[in-house]
Amino acid sequence: MPDSNGSLTARDAKLIQWLSEAHAKESELEADLGAHIALTQKASYKKRLQQHLKETRDHKRRVASRIKKLGGGTPPALALPGVPSAVGEVAGKAVSAVKGQVGVARAAVTSQPETHLRNAQEELREEHVEIALYSRIVTLAEAVGDKETAQLAKAIRRDEERMAKFLDAELTRLVKELVRAEIPRDQRSTGTRARRRTTRSAGTRSRSTGTRSTSRSASSGSRARSTSRSNGSGASGTSARSTSSSRNGRSTTTGSRSSSSRSTGSRSRAASRS
Ligand SMILES: [Fe+2]
């Protein structure tokens, strides 16, 4: 609200400045979404974009209404000190028009899955820009005691977060679709093949473990003792040194573990001989 002299307070001028930025961003994305909807053939994705276009128009309307209540006039006629002209609605639409041309050019030179994917990535980035923008408006509004602006920014941020979550999941789906459309089947990993590979490598591991345990059980008495101590099943008297070196050996790789056990065994034998 303007003060007694009819001019804006510093608090409201700052709120209006940032809300105007949000309004320009919503205008830019309104045009972006329109372009992406026209380029998209995938029904479920198109539907969600259309839903978010409605939300975006609603955000824009509510932000404009809040700016007006704070005494800022009606965007895009808004011309506030400190608000760079590049964040006005006209500029927002101009940015979007250029991005739209890039999007159309991309659609002409890339496959449909690739186009979807690039557009979804761009939308996800923009949602995160909006989330950051509304987060700072929430913090500012709370810091200056403007509950209404804080509530509005929080509500809009929730919609942006929901859209970002959808786009995040959609990106995964689109990459999988691209793989199915563009990568020959024999160059793709399949769940079954991955499972088979896992089982096979697990089998190799258990076989090699078996070999190790056989060699251990076939070893001499003192070596067997040092192995059981290294497993923590007991240590006393002369064995204290050999236990600790076995532990050190355990922390190294499997190959050096067995040689370390053997050398520990020799040390034990040497200790018991002396
Ligand atoms: Fe959005």
Structure commentary:
The chain is 78% helix and 0% strand. The chain is built from nine helices and no strands. α1 runs parallel beside α3, α7 crosses α9 and α8 runs antiparallel to α9. Bound molecules: fe (ii) ion.
Number of helices in the DSSP assignment: 9
Helix content: over 70%
End-to-end separation: 95 Å
- Order of helical and strand elements: HHHHHHHHH
* Integer average pLDDT: 73
- Total number of beta strands: 0
- Low-confidence segments, given as residue ranges, are 77-87, 206-274
Calculate Rg over CA atoms: 33 Å
Annotate the secondary structure layout.
Layout: H1 10-39, H2 43-69, H3 89-109, H4 112-143, H5 147-182, H6 191-217, H7 221-230, H8 239-250, H9 254-273
Helix pairs in contact: 1-2, 1-3, 1-4, 2-5, 4-5, 7-8, 7-9, 8-9
Feature tags:
9 helices, binds fe (ii) ion, 274 residues, mainly alpha, disordered C terminus, elongated
